[in-house]
Amino acid sequence: MDDFTPEELEQARILFARPATFVMGCAKIEQLPDPDLPEIAFAGRSNVGKSSLINGLVGMHKLARASNEPGRTREVNFFDLDGRMRLVDLPGYGWAKASKSTVKKFQDLGRDYLRGRVTLKRVYLLIDARHGLKKVDDEALDALDLAAVSYQIVLTKADKLKKGEAEKVQAATLKGISKRPAAYPAVIVTSAEKGEGLPELRAEIMRTTGVEL
Asked: Which domains does the chain have, with CATH numbers?
């Protein structure tokens, strides 16, 4: 993981404590808001904890709505952080219950967003720390490499692991992406429930977007 100074961590904490609001959900590429702010996007399998992570970053319980039904996020959802950047929640993948035509529709929407968004600074690909990278993640990794969008792996739910296991999964994940051209060579371990890794992720986002206080 990248090293951050205490000042960087504090500035990032202040930034993410500022007002965050839901802007809109887009089901078609034509509906996307104007690309006038830096954006970072979150992607991952259904039920990987995207909503919990986004809510944890901004210190709000219900900004991004978690669902008991995996694959409920079928739009590209935009959140505004104090008019300085947008957090973007991409449709989940790996749905078991959705039809193939439905899956393709929303995967295509995600791909269109990745390819054509000039203000997109990085995608954070969330992976459940209990499982690490799986075959189902390959399609997402391939799509990100193809789109030539910088992406970084974020391990979620680290609090569910025994002591020392997170470091092993982190090392294995880093090795697994070592030859992927668009992958950023650092893996952040997080727990939205415990707050672990969130200060570093906030600082990483702030550094990546170039947003200043």
From this structure: 6-209 (3.40.50.300)
